[in-house]
Design brief:
Structural class: alpha+beta
Helix content: 25-40%
Radius of gyration: 16 Å
Number of strands: 6
Number of domains: 2
Shape: globular
Distance between the termini: 30 Å
Oligomer: single chain
CATH topology of the largest domain: Ribosomal Protein S8, Chain: A, domain 1
CATH superfamily of the largest domain: K Homology domain, type 1
Length: 144
Amino acid sequence: MSFEKLIRIPNDRIGALIGKSGNVKSSIEKSCHVSIDVDGDNGEVFVKSIGDVEKMQPFKAIEIVSAIGRGFSPENAMTLLEGENTLHVIDLREFAGKSNANVERIKGRIIGEGGRARKIWKILLTHISQFMEEPFLLLVMPVN
């Protein structure tokens, strides 16, 4: 059984995906039993399953790469391998409408003044990220 998927991440997140001396990329490959090829020129990441069918986790590898591409640190993205954690991408425009001011207001309430609300997210064992100016909120949530 073979699995192949091409995804794109922002060029400025390629370094975070690869890591020093390729350690992040290598860790994802070993943990998920996949091969990852990165094109640093256009941000294309090619994920391909390798090895034992019983051990490969290509969908987790895609979630991890997507999470890193959207702003999660590699350490937080790797928590997707724990238990049945999963990545949720929430488009805040669904709640705020087309108004940029409403999107910013909702982001502000979720993150809190000076990031204080992030402490609550940590208590809930949830990592949260908001990358650049995108109207998306990203959550890594344990499923219990």
